[in-house]
Amino acid sequence: MDDSKIIDLFFERSEQAITELSEKYCKTCRKIAFNILGSDADAQECVNDALLGIWNRIPPERPCPLSAYVYKTVRNLALKKHRSNTAKRRNSRYDTALDEIIGCLQSDFSVEAEISAEELAKEINEFLANLSDENRIIFVKRYWFGEEISAIGSDMGITNHNVTVKLSRTRNALKKYLSEKGFDI
C-alpha cells in the first residue's frame, strides 16, 4: 500500500493503518533494532513501542517520507533501550561501531556543540552526498543501521577486509572534511 494511503488510515484512526505499516516496514525495523540491541525480544519490543508511538503521533503529524520517520522512531527507541541495557556494561555489537565513528565527532558536548548540532548534521549529510554510492551505503549500513561488517560485506559482495578499509578511509575523509569546515575534531 502507498505511504499516503497508510497515513490516511492513521488520520481515519483505522487499526488497518498499523497492519499496513507492519507489513511494509516491520522487517527492516526489527533488523535496525536487532543490530543495535542484539536481542530478538528487545528488538520486537522496540518495534511494538514504535508502532504505538507512531499511532499516537499521526495525526497531527503527516511524515514525509514515512519510511524514514518509521525507521528513525525505531532506531531512537532502540538506542534508548541500548543505553538503558548497557548503563553499567558494554555491548560489543553497537558500541564497536560507535567507537569507530566517535573520532570524527567532537569529544566535548558543550553548549556550543549542541547549538551547532544542526550545522554538523548538515555538513555530514553533504559529505555523504558526495561519496560514491558504494561508500555511502557501507557507511550508512555500519553507522546508522548498526550492521556487522560481515553482513555488509555479504550484502555488498565484497570481503570484510574491503569493508573495513572503505570504512576507515571514509572516516578519515569525514574527519578531514569536518576539520576543513571548522569543526573541532
3D structure, described in words:
With 185 residues, this protein is mainly α. It folds into 2 domains: 3-85, Rna Polymerase Sigma Factor, Chain: A (Orthogonal Bundle); 92-180, Winged helix-like DNA-binding domain superfamily/Winged helix DNA-binding domain (Arc Repressor Mutant, subunit A). Helix content is 75%, strand content 0%. The chain is built from 10 helices and no strands. Helix 2 crosses helix 3. The longest helix is centred in the N-terminal third of the chain and has 22 residues, at 16-37. The radius of gyration is 18 Å and the shape is globular.
Count of alpha/pi helices: 10
Which percent range fits the helix content?
A: over 70%
H-E string: HHHHHHHHHH
**How big is the Rg?**
18 Å
Q: Low-confidence spans: pLDDT under 50, at least 5 residues? A: none
What structural class is derived from the secondary structure elements? mainly alpha
CATH superfamily of the largest domain: Winged helix-like DNA-binding domain superfamily/Winged helix DNA-binding domain
Report how far the terminal alpha carbons are from each other: 44 Å
Large-scale geometry:
globular
Number of domains: 2
Largest sheet: none
Proper CATH architecture of the largest domain: Orthogonal Bundle
Proportion of strand residues: under 5%
CATH topology of the largest domain: Arc Repressor Mutant, subunit A
